[in-house]
Every structure is written in C-alpha cells, then in structure tokens.
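Page 37, top half.
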Amino acid sequence: TGLKIVKEKGARFLGITSQHVSVEQRIADMDRIGIDIQVLTLTTPNVYFSTRKRNLFLAKMSNDFFADLCQKYPQRFIAFASVPLGHPEDAIEELHRAVKDLRMKGVVLGSNIDGKHLHSKEFWPFYEEVNRLNLPIFIHPMVPIHPETMAEFPLVPLIGFLMDTTQSVAKMVYSGLFEKYPKLTLILPHLGGTLPFIFERLDNGYRSYVECQPYIKKFPSEYLKQFYYDTVSFYRPALMCTYYAVGADHMVLGSDYPHVIGDISKSLSSIEELNISQEEKEKIFGENGKKILKL
C-alpha cells in the first residue's frame, strides 16, 4: 500500500498516508466532500523528541512550511503553531514569531511533553503568555508514557491516545491551571478522550478526595464544559454523550484526516445524521470554529 508505519517502543502510533504529504490530494478531497477550509496542525510526535536546539529548529521549519501553505492557499488553510514546550522560553519565543510574523491562529500541544503531562508547573509561564494573547490551544494526543503494553495490537491510536488526553486534561483541571489563566481555550480531540463520559466521576473525586480540592473553586465539569470537543468519533451514542455533556455550542468538526482510521466523509455524515436541529449542526460544521478562530 506504500504506507509507512512509525512505532515507539514497539507500539505502532502513526501510519503516514499520501494525503499527509500531497497538498493537491488534500485539496481535492476537501472539494469532493465540500470542506471549505482546514486547520493544519503537526501530528505526533510533534517537536519534543530531540535535543533542545533541534526541537526549536523543527518547530521553526514546521511553522514556516505551514505558513507558506496558508499564504499560497489563504482560502483553504489556517495553521496552528508547534512549539518546543520542553523548554518554555524557546516555546514562548517561537509562539511570538508564529503569531506575529506567520499570523498563526493558535497553538498545538501534545498531551505529554517527553513524558510530562501538560499540568506540569514548568509549562505555566508558557500558558501565561497564551492566556495573555488569548489564543486557542489544540491538544493532540501523544504516545502514552508506557506504550509497551499496547504493542501487541495497534492500541496506541485506538485507546492510548484517548487515555493520555483524558489523563493530561484532568490533571490540568485539578491543578488549578484554569483558575489562574481563565482565558485559556482548549480544543480537545476525539470527543475529549473519555472526558464527557466521566464528568460526574471527576466531580465525585472533587467531593471525595482532599487531594483534588486545593487548587480549584468549582467542580471539574464546570471547567470541562468551557472547552471545545472535536467530533472524531463517528459513533452516534458517543457524539450524543458529548452533545448532552457540553452542547452543540462546544463541539467542532473533526475528521482524523488523513490518518488511516480517519474518515473525512463520515466526519460530515455522522453529524448530519444526528437528531439535533440544523442550526446546531451548522454550529458544529463551522460557526463554532469561526468563533474560536475569530474569523
């Protein structure tokens, strides 16, 4: 098939398809389905896996490449910046460049940064700057910290990604990050992992465990309802769970395109088939995205 497989510690997490590298094929697919514009982000493993110097170089290279695409096709693409968050001062420097010079509309972060989840205090100076700039953060899942148990089957993309997103965001909430930086706007992939399904469990943890109480002033679900959830699960009960948890106002269209298990056609049909109003569908298809991106 020509598919290139990428593994970490023996566990498959990425298959590189032709659409990953062909702009022409990507635009043709968008035209075929009726997608007006895509937000481009760098997928796993992003720019966290090498030396400090090289990670910054990779971030600049990726951001320059995406910026060139957006300049060439301004009606079709918007991009979010990648930053080497393992060194927050470098991340802040590159964020400023990406927003000011490259006109990027947000930032993408992996769900863990070289094994550290996103609530880690060393990252808070970066969040302070994102909060000041009022930029959205898209969280893309990373290979979980111990992927060896997921090597027998391709469980990293099927389960591991969802678990790492769930764990990282739950820690961000309990840590008080959104109390300190209330303008932070998160866009969560894959319907937020398992988060909408466990709102009450997380709230119960706040009621029951003193460790979950010191840094937040309200139930975890109240923070989680402020975020946006992309619709990458084309299973109607899962979509409706998220709909009931956060409402159509906090759902945005996702496709997992161009990954092997993504489906750009189902991304549309799965929303069209929901028993919700046409106005709510339009919010999911584009109106919420325009609001987040200030278009």
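Page 37, bottom half:
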Amino acid sequence: MLWVDLLVALKIYDSRHICVVGDFNSVRSVDERKGVSEGGGWKEDTRLFNVLIENSWLADLPLMGRKFTW
C-alpha cells in the first residue's frame, strides 16, 4: 500500500528535510469530497492518510484560492 511504502521511505530519510508532493488521490476529511457517494472505502483511506501525515510529521499545506482544483 502506498501509505506504508511512503512511511518506510520517510523513516530512511529521518534526519533530512524532505518535501513530499503530489496528487495522492486521497482526502483528509469529508469536507474535501464533492459529489462522491458514501461507498467505496474512502473513509478508511482517509483515516490511513491522516495516520501517515501525523506519524511522519508531514504538514498539509493549505490550498490558496479555489477549494477544488478541477
């Protein structure tokens, strides 16, 4: 799973400053979802994404301007 692989990679670079960027196709909260049904397992993915961010000391930078970019 991407989150586990990313956590392992972050631990390898533990003492260095790194920047992790990209579209992970995941959201941190229900407020970031638009027009998607309750099904599909996205709640568990959201939980795991938040665990990754919290356990690896990553910072979720705020988006400027529009809330949705598409």
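Margin note: The helical segments are 2-12, 42-55.
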